[in-house]
Amino acid sequence: RKRSIYLIFEGKLPKVKFYPVPSLTLFAHDGAGGYFAHAGKDLEGKIYFISEKLECYLVAKDFRSFVQMVIFEPEWKDSITGKTAENNETEEEKREFGLQMGFRPPVERLSEKIILAEDFRIFENMEKAKEKLSVI
Question: At 83, is the secondary structure helix, strand, or coil?
């Protein structure tokens, strides 16, 4: 919650207003219309962020890197949203929080590796996806 990431639990799945192609599995939301997802059956693969503007970003190579980025770079979403996150934590407080969670600060800035995920397209719904992807 401190980082505005809320896990999605089975039985509490949200009704989303988008349709990703290919399929992604949602595991959290940011409380502002964005969702976190992964491709595949578990969290060992790449982690994606779907913005409220239906843009899909590759944010981390795996879940561990994602958590590390969220802990040590809480402003990671600034470049995607154009908004500045308010975070008053000192570097020492981030380090202490990370150590409590079993993480050390990354050697390089992980947020600098965030890219638009060109292998995924996000549509408003399934019908729009079928319409745009139909072969003529």
Answer: coil
- Which amino acid would we find at residue 119? D
How far apart (Å, rounded) are the C-alpha atoms in residues 54 and 123?
Answer: 7
DSSP state of 112: G
How far is residue 85 from each of residues 2, 3, 80, 110, 114, measured CA to CA in Å? 12, 10, 11, 17, 17
Q: Angle formed by the axes of helices 63-72 and 91-100, to 10°?
A: 150
Q: Is the pTM of this model over 0.90?
A: no
The first and second tokens of residue 88, run together, are: 């008053």
Q: How confident is the model at residue 85 (pLDDT cuts 50, 70, 90)?
A: low
**Identity at 117, one-letter amino acid code:** A
Q: Are 35 and 58 in contact (CB under 8 A)?
A: no
Nearest Cα residue to 56 out of 10, 7, 105, 23: 23
| Residue 75, amino acid | E
DSSP 23: -
Which two structure tokens, joined as six digits, stand for 98?
A: 């990370």
